[in-house]
Every structure is written in C-alpha cells, then in structure tokens.
Amino acid sequence: MNLELSEEQTAVRGLAREFTEREVVPYAAEWDRSESVDRAIVKKLGALGFLGLTVPEEYGGSGGDHLAYVLVTEELGRGDSAVRGIVSVSLGLVAKTVAAWGTEDQKRAWLPRLCSGDALGCFGLTEPGTGSDAGSLTTRAVREGDAYVLDGSKMFITNGTWADVVLLFARTGGEPGHRGISAFLVPTDTPGLTRREIHGKLGLRGQATAELVLDGVRVPASAMLGPEGKGFSVAMSALAKGRMSVAAGCVGIAQAALDAAVSYAAQREQFGRPIAHHQLVQELIADISVDVDAARLLTWRVADLIDSGQPFATESSTAKLFASEAAVRAASNALQVHGGYGYIDEYPVGKLLRDARVMTLYEGTSQIQKLLIGRARTGVSAF
Ligand code: FAD
C-alpha cells in the first residue's frame, strides 16, 4: 500500500478540512441540541463535489478515488458525525450503488441530482422486526402489469425525512431468506409512502432518522435496481463499501477526541502543573493516539484495495469493527482526560462519545462483523 497521498488527495483533504472548520465545527453543538443540522449544508456539500466523490464525471460526479472519499469522510466525521452520515448514506450507500447497478436511465435520472445535492438519498433495508437478519425482511413488492405495489415498513432510516429517493429492499418472490429480495428506487413523494421522524436518539441527534411506512406504494417496473431477486446482493455490495465509510467517520471521531484531549491536558492544571505532565494522563492520550493510527491505517487499506481492484469486503468489516470500537474507546478516554468538564456539553467530548456509540451498531453490529470475518477465515457460516 502506498501511504503517500497524491496532490489531488492532499488538496481534497485540505478542502474538506477547511470546509469542516468553517461550516461544521462552529455549529455542531447547536445542531445537536436542536436535533437538526441546518439543511443548507446539503447544497454546500454538493457544490464542493463531496456528494459525488467516486461517481463518474459523466453522471455529475467528481470522479475521485476511494482514498479521497475516505479523507473527506474523516474530516467531516471529525467535525460532526451527523453531517458525515448524510454523505455516507446519500453518496456511499445510494449514489454509488446506483452507479454500480443502475441502468443508463436510472443513472441519468438520479446521479446528477444526488451528486449536486439537489436530491438526497436514503437506504431502506432495516425493518421494525428485522435488523441483523436483514435477509428475512418482510416488505413486499407485488407485480401488477408494468408496476410493482409495495407494502411494509422500514425502521431507523438515516436521511429518512429529508430524502428524495429511497433505495428500498422488498420481497418480490416467495423464496425464504435472502433469495427473492429485489431493490427499488422509490421517490419519497410517491403516494402511500409516509415518514415519521424518530426523536430522542443518544447521538447523531442532528441527523434525520425516520420510520417509513409503505401502504400500496406503486412504482413502475423500471424502478427496480439490479436484476429481480438480486436485491440482497445489491444491499450487501453497498454495505461492504459503506462500512469503509463508517470506519472513516470513526477515525474522524477518534482524531477529534485526540485533539480535544491534548489541548485540554495542556491547559488544565492540577497538583501545580498542567495535567499533561501526569503519566496516567499521558497513558490515556497514548491509548487514543494508538487507536487513531490503527483505525486510520485499516481504513486506508480498504480504500487502497478498492482503488486497485482487489477484494475488500473482509478488510472493510475489519476496519469498521476496529474503528467503531476504537472511536468509542477514544471518546471515552478523552472524556476521562476532561474530568467533570467532559460530562457537560460546554466541551465536545460528550457528544463525540454519544455519536460514536451507534457506529458499533449500524451497517452490521460488532457481533455481525465478527461473524463475517469468522466466516471468511474459517469457511464456516455461523449465522
Ligand atoms: P438486532 O439485530 O435485533 O440485534 C440485537 C443484538 O443481537 C445486537 O447486539 C446484535 O449484535 C445481536 N445479534 C443479532 N444476531 C446475532 C447473531 N447471529 N449472533 C450474535 N449476535 C447477534 N438501517 C437501514 O437500513 N438504513 C439506515 O439508514 C439506517 N440508519 C440507522 C441509523 C441509526 C441511528 C440506527 C440506530 C440504526 C440505523 N439503521 C439503519 C439500522 C441498523 O443497521 C440496525 O439497527 C442494525 O443492523 C442492528 O439491527 P437491530 O437494531 O434490529 O438489532
């Protein structure tokens, strides 16, 4: 793996860093308190090309490589995971999947709008009764002439109330398990689709997370993404890359935790000197630093594998598992460095810990990542 960043990668990281400092960091605490990121951020992200990274330029994307995408994701994640998640879902799970699986018409219809921020995407896999066992989902799509009629519900959908299109997974066949699932691109203004925002989240409070209910939602047959019955493969291919994006967001959280801990330790004095002089405080900071480096290297490796056309799914699970657990540890250690001040929202570390906690849950819990890695190493499926 070549660890030297190219000129383009360095430039895009600089752009993302400057944007995060100016447009995200000053507002993140307020967005968290008010439970809403300022929606104007979507168009700004689009204008800079961040919603179209890795999407080919002919479809309105900015055509960067996956390491550039990881670098931008790290920076946004350092500023506010709620903002990072908007990009990870709309670009990482939806636009990139349309680019990979879509027909020419689907790409032309959705990609330019998704890349510019004129439209936002969400990813509808989880249901109230099926999370880790996504292959047993029960939302149905029944063929009627040249249309499908969808009925069911989806739970915990990031960008749910903001999105213009949902990449939705539903059962088209009678086969049990993941066979018989198909993917659809459903405009969210289609009659019969209602959305309810979920409030009271522990973290990512600025992000619009929603429950979607589908009651006789009719879409043309041309809304199907990928072949009929291949929807589970569509979902898993999206998540394999999506996990790299979550891992990159976690690197950002851990880096923010390190920056906050170092800065606080330099200015807070106890026992007659800055607490940075105490060995056990240095131990906390060293542990955070090691977590940042290890998580970053694992995440960059995934990007490097994708960019060089090699298999990457197990490495993506490895990066997501490690980086998400590392982000929780790093934020908790940074809070410890802050003492009681870490426990009030005048300082950012409490929010980092709350935001980090969901990373071990979504896009496959830590247990599910271990089963994926275990299956790859042993050849035995323990699902
Ligand atoms: P369950 O699957 O019920 O798991 C409960 C516990 O059982 C976990 O600890 C799990 O690890 C464990 N477990 C389950 N099966 C096994 C097993 N075989 N072996 C060992 N342990 C097991 N979903 C979407 O589709 N789109 C989104 O945009 C999206 N965004 C989200 C945003 C937020 C803020 C949250 C909280 C969730 C989001 N999700 C989204 C859903 C998320 O992916 C699921 O919550 C996650 O997959 C876990 O499913 P579950 O909550 O039903 O937990």
Polypeptide structure, described:
With 383 residues, the protein is α+β, with helices and mostly antiparallel strands. The chain contains eleven helices and ten strands. A hairpin with a 2-residue loop joins strand 2 (140-144) and strand 3 (147-158). Helix 7 packs antiparallel against helix 10. The chain is globular and about 80 Å long. The relative contact order is 0.12. It comes from Streptomyces spororaveus. This is Acyl-CoA dehydrogenase. Residues 229-376 form the Acyl-CoA dehydrogenase/oxidase C-terminal domain.
How would you briefly describe this protein structure?
The protein is α+β, with helices and mostly antiparallel strands and 383 residues long. Helix content is 51%, strand content 15%. The protein starts with 6 loop residues before the first helix and ends in a 5-residue tail after the last helix.
Counted by DSSP, the helix tally is 11
Sheet/helix structural class: alpha+beta
Mean pLDDT: 97
What hetero molecules are bound to the protein chains? flavin-adenine dinucleotide
Domain Acyl-CoA dehydrogenase/oxidase N-terminal: 6-118
InterPro entries: Acyl-CoA_DH_CS, Acyl-CoA_Oxase/DH_mid-dom, Acyl-CoA_Oxase/DH_mid-dom_sf, AcylCo_DH-like_C, AcylCo_DH/oxidase_C, AcylCoA_DH/ox_N, AcylCoA_DH/ox_N_sf, AcylCoA_DH/oxidase_NM_dom_sf
Domain Acyl-CoA oxidase/dehydrogenase middle: 122-217
Domain Acyl-CoA dehydrogenase/oxidase C-terminal: 229-376
Q: Which structural traits does this protein have?
A:
10 strands, 15% strand, AcylCo_DH/oxidase_C, oxidoreductase, Acyl-CoA dehydrogenase, alpha+beta, binds flavin-adenine dinucleotide, 51% helix, 383 residues, flavoprotein, four-stranded antiparallel beta sheet, four-stranded mixed beta sheet
